[in-house]
């Protein structure tokens, strides 16, 4: 099984509340994004199965109040999650399971 590394762009952008925006006479500027960085989990790059289509998202999978990284795997419709350990660190990936079996989301292909 081949794997493909996926880069994630990490960024911070300032937001202006609509009420403040309406009062502001300063022109709005486009957000500035940081350069893409390779996300690592347990010291290794987060990888996906070919052909990719990873569709990463953040969700609190374990209910600890921190958003964990969830990455879909196109082949087989599986999802792997990486526990958010805090301070920018992610734990080793593990498949999302239901009743002790790796969950699969059927595709449309």
Describe what you observe in this structure.
By secondary structure, this protein is mainly beta. Helix content is 6%, strand content 38%. The chain is built from 1 helix and 14 strands. The chain has one helix at residues 18-23, and strands at residues 3-5, 7-9, 36-38, 40-41, 44-45, 47-49, 57-59, 68-73, 78-82, 84-86, 89-90, 94-95, 97-98, 101-102. The chain has a 4-stranded antiparallel β-sheet with strand order 7-8-9-12, with no helix packed on it. A hairpin with a 2-residue loop joins β13 and β14. Mean pLDDT is 77; it is low at 1-20.
Concise account of the structure shown:
With 109 residues, the protein is mainly β.
- Rounded radius of gyration (Å): 18 Å
The N- to C-terminal Cα distance equals: 20 Å
Q: What's the count of strands?
A: 14
Q: Report the order of strands and helices.
A: EEHEEEEEEEEEEEE
Strand order in the largest sheet: 7-8-9-12
Helices, by number, come to 1
């Amino acid at each position: 099984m081949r794997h493909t590394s996926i880069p994630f762009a990490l960024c911070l952008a300032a937001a202006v509340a609509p009420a403040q925006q309406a009062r502001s006479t300063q022109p709005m500027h486009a957000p500035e994004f940081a350069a893409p960085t390779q996300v690592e989990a347990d010291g290794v790059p987060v990888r996906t199965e070919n052909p990719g289509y990873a569709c990463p998202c953040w969700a609190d999978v374990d209910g600890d109040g921190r958003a964990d990284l969830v990455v879909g795997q196109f082949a087989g419709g599986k999802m792997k999650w990486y526990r958010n350990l805090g301070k920018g660190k992610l734990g080793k990936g593990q498949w999302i399971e239901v009743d002790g079996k790796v969950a699969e989301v059927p595709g449309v292909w």
